[in-house]
Amino acid sequence: MELDRIVDPILLFKNWLSEAEKNEIRDPNAMQLATVSKNGMPSVRTVLLKDIIDTSFVFYTNYESRKSNEINETAKGAICFYWKSLNRQVRLTGSVNKVSDQVSDKYYQSRSRGSRIGAWASKQSRELESREVLMEKVKLLESKYDEDIPRPTFWGGFALKPDEFEFWEDGDFRLHDRFVLKPTSLKNEWTAKRYYP
Asked: Nearest 5 degrees, angle CA 185-CA 188-CA 193?
């Protein structure tokens, strides 16, 4: 890929994601989210990118989960997308903060009834006595709510605002194409530099 000195990483990412949506068998929006505790212990898991708002990458979770606790402790995170069908990868790092209640409410209401019930039923990242306990809780909630299911206060969105992007594309003989984008002092301007693979 030819690089200009100035590249819009969000536009480039959206182009790559659009290609992945045509080629990946499922979940082209799946991303590995890494967080770190205040003690410096990292953890990583797969979540789904649900939106890009004002250049920030938005995902949703239980606010009492391990990832949420680590985000609250450090406000830092890293994301990695890998699309095997395209042999491409995008990595980004940055600060992580909660989205507004209005943004979380809007997305929550767009979810299926079962997913909204699931948000209430799961005490994410905490020990579960048995699968039956969880399913009983789901049944109780299904009988409690009709279609009007409010968003739990303990569930909502986070947004990672990138301070660095790395785009990677597979090359023959492991001579991959790898370039890093970092912001300049000007608003919404990024410089792109190619790196050894």
From this structure: 70
**Backbone φ, ψ for residue 69 (5° rounding):** -60, -40
Strand blocks (E) in 21-176: 30-36, 42-48, 51-53, 56-62, 76-83, 88-98, 155-169
174 classed as catalytic = yes
Catalytic residue among 45, 111, 151, 174: 174
Tell me the per-residue pLDDT of 59-117, one tens digit each, with 9 for 90 and over: 999 999 999 999 999 999 999 999 999 999 999 999 999 999 999 999 999 999 999 99
Reported as a single tens digit per residue, the pLDDT across 156-187 is: 999 999 999 999 999 888 889 999 999 987 77
Helix (H, G, I), strand (E, B) or coil at 141: helix
Instruction: Give the angle subtended at the CA of 85 by the CAs of 9 and 24, to the nearest 5°.
Output: 85
Separation CA 107–CA 99 (nearest Å): 11
Which residue is listed with tokens 């770190």? 36
Q: Domain 9-102+154-195 has what CATH class?
A: mainly beta
Does residue 181 contact residue 7 with C-beta atoms inside 8 Å? yes
Domain ranges of the chain: 9-102+154-195
Single-letter amino acid code for the residue at 70: E
